[in-house]
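Thread: quick sanity check before group meeting

JM: Hey all, I'm pulling together slides for Thursday and realized we never actually wrote out the predicted structure for the chain we discussed last week. Dropping the sequence here so it's in one place. If anyone has concerns about the input, flag it before I start.
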Amino acid sequence: MAIPSFQTRQDERVIRSGPVQSRLEPTPPATPTPVVEMCGLTMQWGSKPVLDNVSLSMQPGERIAVVGPSGAGKSTVLRLLAGLQLPTAGELRLFGETQEYLRLDQRRPPDVRLVFQNPALLASLTVEENVGFLLMRLGRMNPLQIRERVQQCLEAVGLNDVADKYPGQLSGGMQKRVSFARALIDDPDRDEGSMPLLLYDEPTAGLDPVASTRIEDLIVKTTTVARGCSVVVSHVHSTIERSAERIVMLYGGRFQWDGTVEEYRVTDNPYVVQFRTGNLRGPMQPSDH
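JM (edit): ok, ran it. Output follows.
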């Protein structure tokens, strides 16, 4: 009696049993786990929610800009994603895991890196010490290894020969770039292939147009070099359009519009039109109106 033979291929499986042959359909590629999943998220301050039952999904590699008028809750979105606050209701999942504790209370928090509006550099530390602070604190690399990694990150943001300088010796734009270099530093224990989430809070605030352009390009470059994805909060139109691929409009505690940069430029959504043109007439009005 003949013994049935089995043959396996990479894209399909062929099963032979005597004269009968059957083919199985190719296995579809696994759906990637979203980096961010907001499910019915509410953030309540006093009697009025800042975020009111909002839902949003962000896929690996995406670059998103969250826009809206002052006080709309954009910074609250960043604080929730950074693990600095917990939602009042609803669920927030990062890299597939529900966030139930603040970042400092987690043993292995998700790889989320926040670039503040202010560079937030420690004035008493050199640039090298500021950028390599995480590595020095973990204590699993020797000083030479840390210096080499810090220098690579500084070169990635266009800074050379500043490692031994102090923040006060640098211009505002250079300090911003140092904070970007700091965001490139990886935890040595980071899983190979894991994807960081980079959060940028008003990254071009207070900068002139030329310096802003440099920072906008750095947002894209830093996100790419870190093999990550990013969320940018900004009011500056050039920053919104140059640093993001997708734009989400936040107002009244809800996401009022969601689309690509190309769609943002032409949509007739009244919230986007008013924000884009700066018109006083429209659905968005100051809270004291």
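AS: nice. The longest helix spans residues 209-225. The chain has nine helices and 13 strands.
JM: adding both to the slides.
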